[in-house]
Amino acid sequence: MTTPSLKISFRGTEFTLTVLAVLAFVVLALTTHGSVLHGDTLTAIFQFLAVPMVIGLAQMAVLGVGQMNLSVGVVTGFCAMVTAWLMVDVGLPAWLALLAGLATGAAIGLVNGLIVVLTRINGFIVTLATMTIIDGLRYGVHGTATYQGYSPGLVRLGQGSVLGVPTVFLFAVLVAIAVAVFFRHVTVGRQLLASGGNPLAARLSGVSNDRSLVLAHLLSGLLAGVAGVIVVALSGSVNATIGDDLLLPSFAAPIIGGVALAGGVISVVGTCLAALIVRLVDVAQAQYSINPDWVDLIVGAVVLGAVLITQLRGRAAT
Amino acid sequence: MRRRIWADPRLGLLVVIVVLVAVFTALRPAFLDVDLTIVPIQSDLTVFVVVGLAQLAVLSLGHMNLAVGRMAAVSAFAAGWAYDKLAVPLVVGLLIGLAVGALVGAAAGWTIAATGVNSFVVTLALDFALIGLVSLLYSTFSDGVAFHVAPAGMDILRGDTFADYCAGDLCGPPIPLVVPIALVAALAVGVFFRNSRLGREILMTGSNLQAARLSGIPTSRRIIQAHTLSGLLAALAGFLLAVTNGAFSADIGGSFLLPSFLGPVLGGTLLAGGAVSVLGTVFGAALTEVIQTGLNLLQFEVEKFKIYIGIVLLVALSLDRLRQVLAERRKQEVPRVPEPVEQKEGVA
Q: Of 1.10.3470, 3.15.10, 3.90.550, 2.40.128, which CATH number belongs to A49-286+296-305?
């Protein structure tokens, strides 16, 4: 079982993305006279890769069943605010607040999934509505004010590193591995992809498509909660604007990473690599002091291109 | 028949609007203040009706246009640029903006028709690409974030109502000058989908692509045409908002996405395609606007207002679904009664 999948991964999108990421990194290192290889810059690159990676996985989970989740960004912000609120205003210990933050994300995802299943409305529209609601709730936690000075231990952990690797990045990698194992080896994970690939065939094989939809949205919400918790631990201060700029990255990573938008196919490695490449574009923007608008334009154009190429390639294959 | 009228979402909307207006007026008499509320409501409504129509144009196909806001932004940029650099008259700039919007819409439609990629994926990706493009265009070509231009007639269009024009003692009603533009657009779209061959064929394409193709309708072309119309209307909405704001700025269209769905969906336009309701869109937009203004007068914060609008959308969608389920159930029940007599129909 491992050999064929290994072969595919070296030929397909993942391989191309790896080459691209390495190339981009080398070019960046050469043109900036090695400044991206300095300890601090390197740490920052990977520290701030954690959230885009996890948020990309959050979107990937719903793309796997052929749905979308527009609320990932605001859920991240909301979970971050809830976690901080529990620590600062309620006085819960950090670990409990973190768990509550994750539970919040999962609960919102569950609600999204239930609404999608019960009303049979396109998940995009449902999450557009819940996005609007949570956007409001996000500001309801603490207005526009900032939470800071919570649990110094947590922040030390979030900004620290193990053997030179930032802890938040390590954590994101662990999450990615868990997601990969879920989709590859866990029965419900496989069933989820079956529902996404061909709902009719899945139903005839005894898979509950409704359960797959709810599960995918639940997982998506949970991962958005993970991203929120990472933000809390990493930044040391949070306010309600967190998550505003996460929608584009959440789609960019899985789409560039080769996840089929029609559902049924996912790529955890591809999503993470694409998140890294988008991060490198960000770094390049900062290093060369390019107008930041170019980043959105380039990433948007690449996403559009990736969608079309995937589609054309898929058509050529059939 | 009685039941059908009762189930018409438009009637329900009208009742809800009237009740809400009464409630808000009772709580805050200023709700019926002409200068404070009535005139601004109409100006805002003008924009959101046209935005709703832009979304309705592709909902007719069962498609979505997630780039509706950014299409408006690009067109508004083109119009603003033309006013600023070429000093064109008001109408010419509007036409330039409409042309750009139609072109972007056509490009989206062509991509969807040619590749077969889901419409919301294409328009979402297009939206992302245009976000960057629009701010880039403004930072390159304007003095920063906006064109502050005032071609002849724009200030009049923005500030004046028909009440400012009097013939002797007889003055017009307090209706802003921009309102007729939205009315004409709504009428045109309504006639287009109800009476024109092209519009009917677009609806048929949305209702059943395969059947439409087999009936000899060039479905790809209809898809492109519907998206072109959507881009055109988005451009009109962008222009109207720019006129209302008094500047052609990068943030035009930023808040269009949710209202664009609210109007048509509240008004009973199906997301599945094949059926549209222009009047419903107008009522849906009006309901949203009444809620917004009312909550605003009651001094709700913007964030809380968002919570309510999101809930309204969810409830409306659920009701829509409920209606659908009930209709299906009724359809199943009907043939059961006359079964012994009209067996032929049961088979068909």
A: 1.10.3470
